[in-house]
Backbone:
């Protein structure tokens, strides 16, 4: 029975489109609706796990990763490497999934549409750009992306682009890993505010984060980050950053990746339990308040705890939170309500 779990989960980040583009580009519709033997996400598992939607990343991986995953030479992958075309293809895949869904999946551009999907037991999709490397400094592609349904942008991944540099450094380490926003990066933040696009700070280094906090009048949202105090990954958020997010009325989506959960930073799924996710949720609520925390799984982009396994494990996570003392009202906030509230504050009613 679809969405049998008590708490349908709206999730702040996943890499399904990357997986479909890399591994199933010839027929992504069949792969998604019939079931994908690897990874964390497909339609049958989403239904069984109570996944009601989320932010779906449009991400341009490094050439070396494309070559590895597609079993190409580096030269072959480099010759076909066109960031804008890759982004457009990933968005087109999502539109294909919507068209083939028989009304069971919908690309959403408003909170009202997301809420309708939740009530109708449809998958609500928000298109999100992770790393704006496919965009030029003049932002000439921004309007076209908006028309295609993009409503959220993270300016960076790990590598430099026209807008600045993403956080990138060894474990353990500080998020202060490089220069902040370029003038084009500042222009992108202002443009997102004008267009009422969500700005994701998850991959920002510390300088870019504080520049964004000063420039932007929208809530600060980290779609898939954790607490630096518990796991000193450079990608995780310091207490000072968490305080700024709280002051802005923003939100942090808890990342399920073992490297962002464990105190030792190891990417080891077999010895990592769901309790590590509970620890970060508890800490973030203490710092941000119960209205400022949600989930940002990073499914299909990270190693997750063995007890979770994939999207079908979401009910096990909710049960663990319940056993840790989280009541139904708070579980509902974590599962979907907090995300819808911050999207409403960002996009408008």
Residues:
């Amino acid at each position: 029975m679809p969405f049998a779990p008590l708490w349908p989960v709206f999730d702040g980040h996943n890499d399904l489109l990357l997986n479909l583009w890399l591994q199933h580009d010839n027929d992504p519709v069949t792969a998604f609706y019939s079931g994908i033997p690897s990874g964390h996400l497909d339609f049958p598992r989403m239904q069984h796990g109570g996944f009601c939607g989320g932010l779906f990343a449009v991400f341009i991986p490094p050439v070396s990763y494309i070559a590895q995953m597609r079993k190409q030479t580096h030269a072959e992958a480099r010759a076909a490497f066109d960031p804008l075309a890759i982004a457009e293809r990933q968005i087109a895949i999502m539109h294909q999934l919507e068209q083939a869904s028989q009304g069971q999946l919908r690309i959403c551009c408003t909170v009202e549409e997301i809420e309708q999907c939740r009530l109708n037991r449809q998958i609500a999709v928000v298109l999100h750009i992770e790393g704006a490397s496919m965009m030029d400094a003049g932002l000439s592609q921004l309007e076209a992306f908006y028309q295609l349904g993009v409503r959220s942008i993270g300016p960076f991944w790990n590598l430099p682009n026209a807008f600045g540099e993403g956080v990138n450094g060894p474990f353990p380490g500080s998020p202060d890993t490089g220069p902040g926003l370029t003038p084009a990066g500042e222009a992108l933040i202002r443009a997102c505010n004008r267009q009422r696009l969500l700005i994701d700070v998850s991959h920002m280094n510390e300088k870019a984060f504080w520049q964004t906090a000063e420039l932007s009048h929208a809530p600060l949202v980290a779609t898939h980050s954790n607490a630096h105090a518990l796991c000193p990954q450079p990608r995780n958020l310091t207490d000072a950053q968490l305080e700024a997010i709280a002051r802005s009325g923003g939100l942090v989506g808890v990342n399920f990746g073992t490297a962002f959960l464990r105190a030792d930073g190891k990417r080891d799924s077999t010895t990592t339990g769901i309790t590590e996710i509970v620890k970060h949720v508890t800490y973030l609520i203490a710092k941000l308040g119960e209205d400022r925390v949600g989930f940002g799984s990073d499914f299909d982009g990270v190693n997750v705890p063995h007890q979770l396994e994939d999207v079908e494990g979401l009910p096990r996570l909710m049960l663990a939170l319940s056993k840790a003392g989280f009541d139904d009202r708070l579980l509902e906030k974590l599962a979907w309500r907090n995300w819808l509230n911050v999207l409403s504050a960002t996009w408008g009613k």
About this structure: The first helix runs from residue 16 to 23. The CA atoms of residues 2 and 113 lie 19 Å apart.
